[in-house]
């Protein structure tokens, strides 16, 4: 059995709705764009991301 660590590729703020996606090219989180509009949320929000203890980054393969 092989174990692989799989980081999240998207996240959303549970307070203001901001959505970020992982940009592998720049190795950084960037604000998601949908239909030409950036999902920025509130500018002064202290973001509470939806990635918590229920997210499991471990993937087991046979």
TrEMBL record:
It holds the Pfam family HEWD. It comes from the Archaea. Residues 1-60 form the HEWD domain. InterPro entries: HEWD. This is HEWD domain-containing protein. It comes from Salinirubellus salinus.
């Amino acid at each position: 059995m092989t174990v692989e660590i799989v980081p999240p590729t998207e996240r959303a703020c549970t307070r203001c709705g901001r959505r970020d996606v992982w940009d592998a090219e720049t190795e950084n989180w960037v604000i998601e764009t949908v239909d030409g509009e950036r999902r920025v949320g509130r500018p002064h929000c202290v973001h509470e991301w939806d990635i918590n203890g229920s997210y499991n980054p471990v993937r087991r393969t046979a």
